[in-house]
Amino acid sequence: MSGFWQQRPVVVTGGAGFLGRVVSAKLRSLGADVFVARSADYDLTVPGAAEQLLADTSPTHIIHLAARVGGIGYNQAEPAPLYLANLLMGTHMIEAARHAPGIDKTVLLGTVCSYPKFTPVPFREESLWDGYPEETNAPYGIAKKAHLIHAQVNEAQYGQRFAYLIPTNLYGPGDKFHQSVSHVIPARIKRCVEAKEAGESKMDVWGTGTASREYLFVDDAAEAIVLAAEHHVGADPINLGTNREVTIRETVELIATMVGYDGELVWDPTKPDGQPRRRVDPSRAEQLLGWRAQMPFDDGLRATIDWYLAHREEAERAPH
Fold first, then answer.
1. Which is nearest to 110 in space by CA: 62, 183, 169, 165?
2. Is residue 156 one of the residues assigned to a domain?
3. Which domain holds residue 137?
4. Tens digit of each residue's pLDDT (9 = 90 or more) over 14-25
5. Catalytic-labelled residue, pool 42, 115, 140, 215
6. For the chain, what is the HEC assignment?
7. Active site residue 140
């Protein structure tokens, strides 16, 4: 260990969230002085809040993880605030970091939702601008792409230092299970557990099941973020993934088996599948960060189910 993080002041926006808690804990274990920026104290959508945050904390590093996120249903119901809140939070943080003294680097988190709807698999970073994102993901994905451009032009004109990472679908213990914000894995775990407990003979599932996703365990993502914060400088995007593609049907069937639900899965093709396929090329992360995902999917899924069963009240709490 280099001792790089010893007593180094770091701000983690969204540090109380699913990914942020893991990143903050890892930084603290390395000796960093971590300040978790909470939306109740610093509403980053409001002009001046980001500047106040940095004035209050004087960090050398910013890890911007704060985001408004949800699954397909939420994306369809709330596209306008989803776009605007994410755009403003990142925009304000980037500009506040540019003007604040002592900021060495800002780490930004993009999203796989930024890729075009029909991107050649595996997704390579060069394909980001080859088309429009899948419609249900587009407002969120485009807001995040705007941060990428903002970082690149600020790097070129002002010499501002960044790292920009694009993780695939995150999952793991501590995930969000409330129906308003949950993604496919937590949503299906919750539903399968409830169906098993109620003795339901059938369970409805959105879509055809043919769409695919690539799932990244939260601890693996946190490891890459900390590595990038310490070692990498550059505003070009870096994919984070496992190089393993899993269909939604395989995902739901595996969850049902692990939970012990043996009823019929009834697929509803009138509901959207979302992006048809997702799998990224993670070779740039290995080359630039020396990073490779470690958690096998079955093991990570089992850990997530076990955590949910042990923390159901916390897991299902409505977001603030």
1. 165
2. yes
3. 9-171+214-245+276-295
4. 999 999 999 999
5. 140
6. CCCCCCCCEEEEECCCCHHHHHHHHHHHHCCCEEEEECCCCCCCCCCCHHHHHHHHHCCCEEEECCCCCCCHHHHHHCHHHHHHHHHHHHHHHHHHHHHCCCCCEEEEECCHHHCECCCCCCECHHHHHCCCECCCCHHHHHHHHHHHHHHHHHHHHHCCCEEEEEECEEECCCCCCCCCCCCHHHHHHHHHHHHHHHCCCEEEEECCCCCEECEEEHHHHHHHHHHHHHHCCEEEEEEECCCCCEEHHHHHHHHHHHHCCCCEEEEECCCCCCCCCCCECCHHHHHHHCCCCCCCHHHHHHHHHHHHHHCHHHHCCCCC
7. yes
What was the pLDDT predicted at 74? Answer: 67
CATH of the domain at 288: 3.40.50.720
pLDDT tens digits for range 89-108: 999 999 999 999 999 999 99
Do 30 and 54 touch, CB atoms closer than 8 A? no
The pLDDT value recorded for residue 22 is 98
In a domain, 193, yes or no: no
Is residue 271 a part of any domain in this protein?
no
CA torsion 274-279-280-286 (nearest 10°) is 140
Instruction: Look at residue 318 and tell me if it is in a domain.
Output: no
CA dihedral 293, 213, 243, 277 (to 10 degrees): -160
Quote the number of domains for the chain: 1
What confidence tens digit (pLDDT) does each residue in 258-290 have? Answer: 999 999 999 999 998 888 899 999 999 999 999
Q: Please state the pTM of the whole predicted model.
A: 0.94
